[in-house]
């Protein structure tokens, strides 16, 4: 309800961005009292919106803060489930994946979205950290409840990577690609990481948390070595709210397709792969696999050919690229 | 500490089961005050132990309740980690797996054991219930933290099944076998089910909950159709505490081997399999696989040959046996 009214007031302001609008106009348009409008205009001001108020003329919105507020992300979002239900926004959180996991355990439905402006324990793969400074990143986690076995998970991680790479390439004209299994790389540097976590029985996944961290406008000094940001690569700031909506919409399309057809986006993922054709060394628990990455399997595994020509299917692991 | 002192008093009583032992004997042997001994003797009585007290003679234990108290299970347990650390006992619980999962989330270590005399929402596979009446069953869940990928889980479930079948066959001379992937069957009827649940990233399992439900002395009227109990099959009551210890010891051996060698108990599991050589129909999510079960794969998958001779690897599913 709170989210709704804020969203509606903002939509009304923006539709009439050239003019002053009176409290009465808003209260009539939204069907709420003028006192209520006043209360929420002040709440929006507290959230960083500059809203000018001139006696006898009314309100005018001057600027919006660069924040991923749930009512901004949901505003005009063209999805059916992803981000359409509950959206949980925080300024700062330990980890969006942890929060989403708790919410999933408590029964929150597919499509529930957790957003944070910064994470103080952002999680990466293999127990690593994902550096998540305030100001310029997108840190989101989605609850998914596909009816699949755990062997389908690499496919879901890959279609998430694929949908993100596609959106980045569409809006920036960069050439983002996928470093198997779950990184997105631009000009040789990491711009986005995906962390999939699941609760499962061997038969089926109870739920899956898809965590996405993207360096959007993050200043270079706040990015660890080997990483970059969209702004760093393009010299342009990107609207994070719009990008988040684009990502959710693109991912929903691909995920719906996955639910119907399985990993039928395999060829698209192969096309975006920066790993295929490269020499690789992969650490997977206590074994090390060396060879050339030759294919992505039916369910998203990496197929590696060793020196003797034998093929190995790698389910997951820590990949170093050579040559 | 409480658990310790109860265990020590019981050990002392049982060592001296033919004689009366004085409070002073116990207090000297255990290095605690007589008041303390008195307090814990009364606690044991409240738990159902019949302890006779004769003035000037002392105490004598007459009988012990048929309960899986943590201090009974731990008493003489010859394991290194399994059941050696925290053991959580309840008369009644929603689900031992749920409790173990919560404990694992909170950081409890490998080997932590949850025991209940009954479960009101005992969980089976595929969202089913595991009927868990009071009086005669063993309902336990173990926290495991192996450093493996999710593809290794079927192997761990199978070695658990294998260790349970071995123990049942050793102590009863029945011929228990494994119905892939996770049931133990005696004379065509189910006697034990295993429910493995995991929290994982595709790269690695954070933790695994191994839930085991066994119909030991459960009366026939309380067992669902298609099931049986050890007592029903042998006409003998089985000491549940002793059986639980045997299971934990046997499982630890096989699990340690698994951690060193992977699924090297594959041949043993094949030998105990009731599925191999049979015609099967397997529902795995939205697909149905029909054919003959011909092998158990390197990591515990079932290999099914269809009518055309093609082999399919089945990771998990709901199996019906024919022929």
Layout of helices and strands:
The structure is a homodimer of 323-residue chains.
Chain A: H1 2-15, H2 23-30, H3 34-46, E1 50-54, E2 58-63, H4 70-73, E3 87-93, H5 96-105, E4 113-119, E5 137-144, H6 153-172, E6 177-179, E7 183-186, E8 189-201, E9 204-215, H7 230-234, H8 240-261, H9 266-272, E10 279-284, E11 287-296, E12 302-305, E13 311-314, E14 318-322
Parallel strand pairs in A: 3-4
Antiparallel strand pairs in A: 1-2, 4-5, 5-9, 6-7, 7-8, 8-9, 10-11, 10-14, 11-12, 12-13
How does this structure look, described?
The structure is a homodimer. Chain A has helices at about 1-15, 25-30, 35-45, 70-75, 95-105, 155-170, 230-235, 240-260, 265-270; strands spanning about 50-55, 60-65, 85-95, 115-120, 135-145, 175-180, 185, 190-200, 205-215, 280-285, 285-295, 300-305, 310-315, 320. The first copy, chain A, has a seven-stranded mixed β-sheet with strand order 3-4-5-9-8-7-6, with helices on both faces. Chain A has a five-stranded antiparallel β-sheet with strand order 13-12-11-10-14. Chain A has a two-stranded antiparallel sheet with strand order 1-2. The radius of gyration of chain A is 22 Å and the shape is elongated. The first copy, chain A, has three domains: about 1-65, Arc Repressor Mutant, subunit A, CATH 1.10.10.10; about 70-270, BirA Bifunctional Protein, domain 2; about 280-320, SH3 type barrels (Roll), CATH 2.30.30.100. Helix content of chain A is about 30%, strand content about 30%. The mean pLDDT of chain A is about 90. Chain A has nine helices and 14 strands. Chain A starts with a helix and ends with a strand. With about 325 residues, chain A is of the alpha+beta class. The interface of A and B includes residues 149, 181 and 318 of A. Strand 8 (about 190-200) of chain A pairs antiparallel with strand 8 of chain B.
């Amino acid at each position: 309800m709170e989210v709704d009214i804020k969203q509606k007031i903002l939509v009304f302001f923006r539709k009439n961005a050239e003019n002053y609008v009176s409290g009465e106009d808003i209260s009539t348009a939204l069907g709420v009292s003028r006192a209520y409008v006043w209360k929420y205009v002040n709440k929006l001001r507290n959230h960083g919106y500059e809203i000018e108020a001139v006696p006898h003329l009314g309100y005018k919105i001057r600027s919006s803060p660069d924040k991923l507020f749930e009512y901004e992300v949901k505003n005009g979002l063209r999805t059916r489930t992803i981000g359409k239900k509950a959206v949980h926004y925080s300024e700062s959180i330990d980890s969006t994946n942890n929060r989403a996991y708790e919410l999933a355990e408590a029964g929150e439905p597919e499509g529930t979205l957790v957003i944070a402006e910064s994470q103080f324990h952002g999680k990466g793969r293999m127990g690593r950290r994902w550096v998540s400074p305030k100001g310029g990143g997108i840190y989101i986690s989605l609850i998914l409840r596909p009816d699949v076995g755990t062997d389908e998970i690499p496919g879901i991680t890959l279609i998430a990577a694929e949908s993100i790479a596609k959106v980045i390439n569409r809006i920036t004209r960069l050439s983002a690609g996928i470093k198997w299994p779950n990184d997105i790389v631009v000009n040789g540097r990491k711009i986005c990481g995906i962390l999939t976590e699941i609760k499962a029985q061997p038969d089926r996944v109870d739920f899956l948390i898809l965590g996405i961290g993207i360096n959007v406008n993050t200043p270079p000094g706040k990015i660890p070595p080997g990483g970059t940001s969209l702004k760093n690569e393009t010299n342009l700031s990107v609207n994070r709210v719009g990008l988040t909506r684009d990502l959710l919409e693109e991912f929903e399309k691909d995920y719906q397709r996955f639910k119907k057809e399985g990993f039928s986006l395999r060829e698209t993922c192969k096309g975006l792969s920066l790993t295929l054709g490269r020499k690789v060394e992969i650490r997977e628990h206590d074994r090390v696999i060396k060879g050339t990455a030759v294919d992505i399997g039916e369910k998203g595994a990496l197929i590696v050919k060793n020196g003797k020509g034998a093929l190995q299917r790698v389910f997951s692991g820590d990949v170093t690229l050579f040559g």
